[in-house]
Amino acid sequence: MKHWNKFSLLLILLLVALPLLANAGPKKQKQHPAVSEEQECLDCHAQQYDAWQGSKHGQMGVQCVVCHGSLDATFFVKPPLERCNGCHADQVAEMQKKSAKLTCTSCHDKHTLAATSKTPFHKKGGN
Amino acid sequence: MELTRRQLLKFSAALAAASAIGLDLPIPQEARAAVGADKWVKGVCRYCGAGCGVYVGVTKGKVVAVKGDKDNWNKGYVCLKGLLLPPILYAPDRLTYPMLKKGDKFERISWKEAMDLMVAKFADAYKKNPNSIAFYGSGQAYTEESYFMGKLFKAGLGSNNTDGNPRLCMASAAVGYVSTFGKDEPMGAYDDFYHSDCFFLIGSNMPEAHPVLYRILREQKDKRKDVKIIVADPRKTELGRKADLYMSFTPGTDLAILNAMAHVIVKEGLYNKDFIGKHTVFKKVVAPGPPPKIEKTSWEDYVAFIEQFTPEMAEKASGCPKADIIKAARWFAQSKATMSMWCMGLNQRTRGVWANNLVHNLHLLTGQICRPGATPFSLTGQPNACGGVRDGGLLAHLLPYGRLVVNDKDREDMEKFWGVPKGRIQAKPGLSAVEMFQAFGKGDVKCLWIACTNPGQSLPNVGEYRKGMAAKETFLVVSEAYHPSKTSELADLILPAALWVEKEGVYGQSERRYQLLEKCVEPAGEARPDFDVMNEFGRKLLAAVGRADEAKHLIPYKKTAEIWDEIRQASSGTAYDFMGMTRDRMKKAHGMQWPVPTASHPGTLRRYSAKYGDPLVKKFDPSAADISFYGNKADGNKAVVWLRPAAGPAEPADKDYPFVLTTGRQIEHWHTATMTAKVPELRRAAPYGFLEINPADAKSIGVKNKDKVKVSSRRGSLVLEARVIEVPRPGLVYASFHDPEKLINLLTNDAFDALSKQPEYKICAVRVQKA
What we know:
A: globular, B: alpha/beta, N-terminal domain of TfIIb, Rossmann fold, Dimethylsulfoxide Reductase, domain 2, six-stranded mixed β-barrel
């Protein structure tokens, strides 16, 4: 499998090069602690998982990785707006128009995504 | 050296981290979902048959984001796979140049070398025997590509040896529609979700296989308190847990349940006598054939036939309580509007067509059809199984737009339309999917071209067919976006294919909605759109077999839009008629549902009803007041209620193999995961295949959750991690077929339905032991 040998070589080069270049880039995302392939989000985040599971996102299979990413550079403690934008583009645009500082969790619970504000923000009929 | 899954995970992490610090790596930093993009291009999701409308965000020539199209049927929603599409284009194992196998290794060659070799091999085999070449296509290829290959083979070469993977997923639904209504494809639409108050779901895992459709179902259930959901499935998935009535049964006994529901409807007088009299005929098979001898029969004969299927009899046969069967029948018949939906649970069966017929029977007996919310509706697995391979006529027994190769007039019509000599198209159907790979294994087919699909993983009893695909005596060409896949690794020649929005074409999804995907970005490396390769191959192959002049008028295309115009012409005058679906209209529209007979017609939400807007009722059946099943002219534009007995699977559980194995999809991955496994988030969420087993069964064989178990059938065995869970009923185990390192199809049964030629993936007998 010559094809994979090339990737293996690249992988080794990367692993050697990364520490040398690590300080050259922008501020890094907070990293997720190393976990085994067998470990699931639920194992350490049961409270958040339970809240999510009963929510609309939980019922529709919008899993942890959609908002929080995987465990590499795609990992996000605070979900980036672009993830929300995939299904709720109008609401994200509306929010950004009001204030660049707002995020969805400014008004929505972090894991149930239920609205916490008593004042409805979005136009009726949104996603 | 093979990379392990763990190494791949680490590899991916390194790539992404390096990308974050600015190294030039295959996955661009921009290929992460972004709120902003240089431009947003309207398109369609690459994955399932739901066909979600999306906008593709493009920045600096790279796809950076996907968002749902709020003006399409999906109202702006996408599932997790759709949202995370961009990385599939930038995976490190994208195939970027042609490769030829030399010895046991693949070596880079030029496109010219690849094309010259391919043409020479196919021409040589063809000259010796026109039926010794074959093409195996895909429900993921664009419509223009499937139509082109059907035309090249059937009209240009006089060979019907073109089939595709929709044979593995939708053939029973297609033959079910044709045998009941005369023509393929549903009459209903997703809009029926908003009008139905009784949903009957059988053999579907909608929350995982079609998540955005499930979102609508749940929304309707939450909003309208009178909505009832009936779910019949041997696995109690999320769908069954949310049902008002969940019906569990021994796998393979659902035909008895469907007939028993009809029994209750007849016995309790819940049928619609007026509808039955005006719009149905009754038929039965009097000699099995092949071909089966069919006779028309009567309502009285049907009533006598259905007598045997009492709820008690069905309970004894299936294990489903008779009270549930009675309740389901009453809800089905008495609701204001009932919508049935099913997927592979009915289709991937040796009696898949019969099962489809029996669902249609329930709608015809009760008149729950051809009005808002009342319809049978088959769910589709692939984004263009309907639009390309079924409608476009690539399957070995089909010609475009409802025409059949066995029908003399249909062949003559297409020969005239395509401008080839009369008699060019063979009257005998070509090889269906499983038959094609059987013939390739035997060497009867010498040259096989596989495009846009992964049969080295997805065929049933795949170990047997992998041997044939690896044989040195035959010539296997594989067009793929990635290498290695479980198919490309077996090829002699692999061709790099443009993927998704790297090319332009039309997808047609489950509700007859055709949608245009425009090219957004350049293909990776030397990859080319399959159409470009097919077009060049077609011209050169026809020239090599002495038909260069014919090629000039038969395949004169320069771009797919030209084929689309011809396709519209081919549909004109048929029951599919979408002559009015021009490329310009498609660029603006968020999909259009055929029939669309004229350029001013808006498309058709519901078929077979003049009242609800089908423009073809008056054309084909001018005297019809409203409903007309005009696809079935031979039976007076009426639909067929079939007398179909109950029949079990080809391989039921027995004392040596006491469990039933069923397979399916899980939400994180799509089919064989060639694409979804390239997305770090999805791979992390579901890194490997496992075996679901009921806690009672696990206890009986001494297995605990996460233990390794060996699962074996008469065809192969595999070690998987046990997932002990109350989802499969006792006696049933389940595995997803996505994991290339855990080929569950080594175990599945390749016995197929005699009518549809679709294999019985859903049921085979296995034993399970602690490993």
